[in-house]
Amino acid sequence: xxxxxxxxxxxxxxxxxxxxxxxxxxxxxxxxxxxxxxxxxxxxxxxxxxxxxxxxxxxxxxxxxxxxxxxxxxxxxxxxxxxxxxxxxxxxxxxxxxxxxxxxxxxxxxxxxxxxxxxxxxxxxxxxxxxxxxxxxxxxxxxxxxxxxxxxxxxxxxxxxxxxxxxxxxxxxxxxxxxxxxxxxxxxxxxxxxxxxxxxxxxxxxxxxxxxxxxxxxxxxxxxxxxxxxxxxxxxxxxxxxxxxxxxxxxxxxxxxxxxxxxxxxxxxxxxxxxxxxxxxxxxxxxxxxxxxxxxxxxxxxxxxxxxxxxxxxxxxxxxxxxxxxxxxxxxxxxxxxxxxxxxxxxxxxxxxxxxxxxxxxxxxxxxxxxxxxxxxxxxxxxxxxxxxxxxxxxxxxxxxxxxxxxxxxxxxxxxxxxxxxxxxxxxxxxxxxxxxxxxxxxxxxxxxxxxxxxxxxxxxxxxxxxxxxxxxxxxxxxxxxxxxxxxxxxxxxxxxxxxxxxxxxxxxxxxxxxxxxxxxxxxxxxxxxxxxxxxx
Length: 537
Ligand code: GLC
Ligand code: CA
Hints:
Elements: H1 8-11, E1 14-17, H2 33-38, H3 40-46, E2 50-53, E3 57-58, E4 70-74, H4 81-93, E5 97-102, H5 112-119, E6 131-132, E7 152-155, E8 160-163, H6 178-193, E9 198-201, H7 237-248, E10 255-259, H8 268-273, E11 284-286, H9 297-310, E12 318-320, H10 329-332, H11 339-352, E13 356-360, H12 380-385, H13 427-431, H14 437-450, H15 452-456, E14 458-464, E15 469-476, E16 479-486, E17 492-507, E18 515-523, E19 528-535
Parallel strand pairs: 1-2, 1-13, 2-5, 5-9, 9-10, 10-11, 12-13
Antiparallel strand pairs: 3-4, 6-8, 7-8, 14-15, 15-16, 16-19, 17-18, 17-19
Helix pairs in contact: 6-7, 11-14
């Protein structure tokens, strides 16, 4: 019996684009939607199945689009609504889905809902946001903004405070208000009707706050999850997520993926809780644990083990190594002159473990963090905390297309400087090089697409990260793969005690179609090899 095909968001590879930095079609220094459309050939050559675009809606850009002032339109710096429609249609023609960023924990302070809400205490939209009188001339409670300072801003016009979990230009919506939710769901239907395939939900675990606005417990541990007992991770949020899921389920083959952000970063149980019973909340959720692990086979293994154990029976996991808020993985893995080798091992890991892989633009080239001067920083976080924290611009610099001026990203001055590595590290140069990082990614993606076991198969660990080696089987029906990853700079030996005919399908060190008759293998430093079972001896 043939099993039914799995949904695309389980089997596919998803690629995140930070639109400001992908490709500038009109030479104003800012990447745009037409720029993405122009690069669809590249993306389909790479083999990805879906694009997640960081926000492209109208925004005053205090947080570069994560502060939306009109959910129904596209910001003019990225193009027009028609440009977006064209992107959706052309992407679909290439077999590529489009996932939009849904920033609905908060809006911009310039959104008309907030403008109305702040206009008077009896405005019909007052309760769409979270307003409260002060206590003894101070903020209503001790909640802190994730971006620093009190989470409350006093508004002299009505003499009350409003809540903002991020910048004061990002007032939090009140998810307990059903009229507000209805408007959000209506807006979601608008994009679903026009063919958008899914949404990435910004900070989904922050939507609901304590109904009594109680102060968070005081804790002396700097990274204590209890610290956010009342302003985040409220259990009531799940009722609203189920409501939201039923809206998405009115449509065929759509998906949602939630950003579950915590400090300390990574909380697999909490992330997985947003999958509900596996069918009634989000389709996927991000867990950040792995982004905060040092380079080690053992810690990567422990991390994915915990993460998959947390996933509900009918649920599905997803994995990523980078995004627009974190330093680039290549730089995080350190390793000095070995950093490229480490990034290759990580690529094979990400694309052969169980769970939907998310790639971050440029990761397929091995892009590194860009070192920026204080005067070049535009991220509000970097500007506030420099030099202790330099913000997120280092991983948001333009995509490196070629060795031409500004890496072929634009002819104008780019909004953030281009990384100095672009002369040699770029799409053009790597396309023609069989052994490049880019071709490694491409081969991995294509291999994964061709073999169901790599996408959907069981994950059976064989070497659990000890001695810095990770090895596992992926099995689906009669199809079996064995993947070996040497995270260390030293030669290693493994013996998986399995005889048979095995053939190398992809490797950082071996030639394709090399044969083995047993899984007794000597691994070169930083070797990553994908081997396929060809039958008994
Ligand atoms: C999320 C986004 C981040 C943004 C924040 C506020 O964490 O990924 O970029 O600054 O939410 O919207
Ligand atoms: Ca532009």
